[in-house]
């Protein structure tokens, strides 16, 4: 689509004359799908200014987009969700159809306003990213770089987007501007004002405690206390008194009344970290507290009314804990009202260097030292690492560097000394395991195996398997259909 409305041929020709793009220039470049002529023109001009793509095609609706993709193919598709309404009744189904026909191209969904539901729906249907309209060139440049680093598809941007000096966190206590973190920030902003429970999931080291603090700070209870309890760090026999308090004389040594974490958080927020480690007997008492809003101190017969917002977090799969009868299903659904998932660092590689620079500046101030940054070789190594320990592993590495060295530029040799987690065993030690090239399966086969094993683990229940894998049931049905089609074609 070009300078006229609804993607007419005349409009495309006029846009091609004005911006040097249009249907005639379709090749191995980028496709913009948008019925909004003004936004399509602005987006095309922004893309041209990036000087990355040899050609840019446009379409005013879904049918035109599918025709272009079938005829020519593209490496990247930017598609306005409202403009795809002619190919499916729902935005999610329209994106899924576009993704199938795009045949491996990067698909970026566009929509008016910051909508969590639209973003989640589009990415659940197969889109690689989501952007709110209007899209500016610098944001698009950052996202395309992020996508290239994450997926390795499409033409590589000529250079990484400039990184500003690490003045402070980008949101709440988080550092990172990747698309994955933008979705997290938006979710926090939308749910912070509610009193409903929040259930945070994510691998160890992804910042679940930072997320809880951000939810508290951006909500109406920010003036009250945030009380955190690590359910994995407190012995089971002390957990009840830690959570609900103790009445004087309840046991030997209880010489005075003591409030528990729930009472201390009255009016504020109670954060239960590693909720999956909570003993089953105490889970029933926590459920009663959530249902009634009242508690009894250990050794006390009466009840006390408490008003708290409960946030919990776990690095374990809650559906698996339920399956293993280690977590009450009714408690899970009482807590799992507003879910937030924190992505691992390996899924947002564009955030690695901003995080490293932020930690370097922070710990250099703390240790009264002066560092100029990281060398190019050190930055390349940091960006390429997998970070199984996520942000916490990177944070520990940078702190170790600051403590071990006096200042200046951090080079590759300094990383070799400080990066003890990634250090290979010395000669003569246990040899590192090797994997035969023939043993490496294509990604779709590994994905199929993981999904089918999850379905089998839940006795064929696709809904439970999807919840455990943190994807939608429709994704499983769609992938099963594509596997069947590939089998028939083979």
TrEMBL record:
Q: Where is the Sigma-54 factor interaction domain?
A: 174-403
Domain Response regulatory span(s) in chain numbering: 29-148
PTM annotation (4-aspartylphosphate): residues: 80
Q: Which CDD domains match?
A: AAA (cd00009)
Report TM segments: none
List UniProt keywords, sorted A-Z. Activator, ATP-binding, DNA-binding, Nucleotide-binding, Phosphoprotein, Transcription, Transcription regulation, Two-component regulatory system
The entry's protein name is Sigma-54-dependent transcriptional regulator
Give the originating organism. Devosia albogilva
